[in-house]
Every structure is written in structure tokens, then in C-alpha cells.
Specification:
The chain has 330 residues and is α+β, with helices and mostly antiparallel strands. Strand 2 and strand 3 form a beta hairpin. A four-stranded antiparallel β-sheet has the order 1-2-3-4. The protein is built from 13 helices and four strands.
Length: 330
């Protein structure tokens, strides 16, 4: 039976953690981690976001602000869990006690403050060094944006030299490969995951690029005369920028027209720095995270015309001779 070839939006997303992958589907998330003894531990929980049950979560541009906060908090929690598996006292407070929640909140706030300092305040300060030689304030705003992008790229390249980050980027690639495998209509086997692309439009790396790009446009048109007011204005506009960027990447995940492909291209190029090719054991971990929160067999049945009987045993055999070619496809 002929298969549909176009992508289908699955709704699942995730992130890499220490020696593992987190996958989220609606209000459930799972963290799969390869423990030092080689076993794969899977933690499945519900995630209560800051707008749980609130109508604001459906309002465009507003929802992006809170989704961004939710992602930071959940991401930090999952990183803490994966790190705890390598701690001798891994069971102490791992289930989200008040002490852990306070620490996660403090670290999240500190991370946001540090990111604002490095990617908002520092580029403005460096760009202001050129102000004495430039009469055009519009050009100064563009220079500031370019400096912001350069700092981000230098930061990515610098941390990628660390061995732990290299493995994190491989798990990041495994996460993307799993999602691409499903959304391209391939049964979720190690073989199919390994031959899928490690680049995905809904990646957090692309989101950060959109944040940098949107900030250039907003700071170009919205200005203040006083230097202190300029810095404050840039900080206050970050939630607005995050809201706009969220809508762009949300559109990119659901559309494939030429405009979406053009605006997505730079972020997907940067993903080649933040994702690396995983090995098969990493693909197995990512698959375990997906299967804990998502029924991929039902998804392929409803969106690609598979009979459910065809998919039984696919995970065990790891073979699917009826699927397409062996090339990577985003």
C-alpha cells in the first residue's frame, strides 16, 4: 500500500539531558537516562505548567511567554534528575521535595539573569563603543544585533569543546531523529531513527535564533535616548520577543511553505553545531523516552495509513523494508 510522503505534526518535543533524553507530549513527560550500569531508567510524570487550566495558554503571543518559562523550569528539573542518577544519594529528594523545587527555581532565575547579561546587556555595551564613530543610530542597532549573534555562536562553539557537552549534543541529535522518524511516517526502530535527520524546525536552538533575530527588528524601531533606559527597555522587551519567537517556531513546526523554509534555514544551520550524530545506544534511550509518552503506532496508523497489525513487532525486529530511501531528511 502506498504511503503518504509529507510530514505530519506529532506534537511531541523534548530536550537532551545528561546521558539521556526528555520527551514531552501534552501534560506528560518522560526522562530516559542510561545509568552507569548500562540500564535505561525511565521517569514518567505529569507537568503542571504555570498556565494549567488558564485560558491565557491559548492566546497567541501571550502563551509563548509562559511556555518559555515552563520549558526552562521543566528543563532544569529534568537535568537535575539525570544528574541525580550519578549521585550516591540519588534517592534523596529526587521526587520533587520543597528543597529541590526551591533550588530549581533559584537556578532558573539565575540562568535567566545570566542569559540577559550575556546576550542583552553585553552586546549593547560593546555596540556602544562604536557610537562615537557612527552618526546613524539605526546602523548601531544592527551592529548590536550582529554582535549578539556572534556572541551566541562563539558560546556554542566554546561549550562544544567540553566532552560532556559533546555527548549532550549527541543525545540532542537522538531526540530530533526520533521525532523526525515519526513525523516522516517511519516506525520507531533504531534502524529508522539512525537514518533520520538530526535537524528539526521546532528545536530550541532555532527558537533562540528567532529571539536574536526578532530582537534586532524591535530594537531597531523601539528606542530610548538615555543609555540606562535603553538597557531597561531591552530587558523589559524580552518577554515580548519570546512571545513573538514562540509563534514563529510554532508556525514553522506546522507549515512547509517557502517563507517558513527561508526563515527556518538559519536556525536549522545553527543546529548543526548543537546536534551531533548519536550512536545506536543513544537512539535506544531516546526511543524509550518517546514510547513512555506517545503511541507512535497509533499515530502512524491515523496519519500514514498503516494497519496496526503491520506495526506489531517493529520495535523488536528493527527492520522495515517497505520504508523510503536512506537519505537524511529534515
Amino acid at each position: 500500500m502506498a504511503r503518504k510522503k509529507c510530514n505530519r505534526y506529532s506534537g511531541i518535543g523534548g530536550q537532551a539531558v545528561l546521558e539521556g533524553v526528555m520527551m514531552k507530549n501534552q501534560d506528560k513527560y518522560a526522562v530516559a537516562v542510561r545509568k552507569p550500569n548500562g540500564q535505561v531508567a525511565v521517569e514518567l510524570e505529569n507537568h503542571q505548567g504555570v498556565l494549567q487550566g488558564n485560558k491565557l495558554k491559548n492566546i497567541p503571543f501571550i502563551r509563548g511567554i509562559f511556555n518559555f518559562i515552563d520549558s526552562l523550569v521543566l528543563g532544569m528539573k529534568c537535568l537535575n534528575y539525570s544528574a541525580s542518577l550519578y549521585d550516591e544519594n540519588e534517592n534523596d529528594g529526587r521526587k520533587g521535595g520543597s528543597g529541590e523545587k526551591l533550588m530549581t527555581g533559584l537556578v532558573t532565575v539565575f540562568s535567566i539573569a545570566l542569559a540577559i547579561g550575556i546576550f542583552v546587556v553585553l552586546p549593547y555595551y560593546l555596540a556602544s563603543l562604536f557610537s562615537g564613530n557612527l552618526l546613524n543610530s539605526s546602523l548601531l542597532a544592527i551592529i548590536e544585533g550582529v554582535i549578539r549573534i556572534v556572541i551566541f555562536l562563539v558560546y556554542i562553539c566554546a561549550i562544544s569543546l567540553m566532552s560532556d557537552i559533546k555527548r549532550l549534543f549527541k543525545y540532542h541529535g537522538a531526540e530530533h531523529k526520533c521525532i523526525n522518524c515519526i513525523e516522516r511516517g517511519r516506525p520507531l526502530t533504531v534502524r529508522n531513527v539512525m537514518r533520520s535527520s538530526r535537524i528539526h524546525r521546532r528545536c530550541g536552538t532555532s527558537f533562540i535564533f528567532f529571539v536574536l533575530f526578532v530582537s534586532i527588528i524591535l530594537f531597531f524601531f523601539i528606542r530610548a535616548e538615555n543609555p540606562f533606559q535603553r538597557v531597561v527597555l531591552r530587558v523589559l522587551l524580552m518577554p515580548v520577543i519570546a512571545g513573538i519567537s514562540y509563534e514563529i517556531i510554532r508556525l514553522a513546526g506546522r507549515s512547509n511553505n517557502i517563507l517558513v523554509r527561508i526563515i527556518s534555514a538559519p536556525g536549522m544551520w545553527i543546529q548543526r553545531l548543537t546536534t551531533k550524530e548519536p550512536d545506536k545506544s543513544m537512539a535506544e534511550v531516546a526511543i524509550a523516552a518517546v514510547e513512555a509518552v506517545f503511541d507512535w503506532r497509533q499515530f502512524l496508523h491515523e496519519n500514514f495509513g498503516y494497519a496496526l497489525e503491520e506495526l506489531l513487532g517493529e520495535r523488536e525486529s528493527g527492520e522495515n523494508s517497505a520504508m523510503g530511501n536512506n537519505s537524511e531528511e529534515p
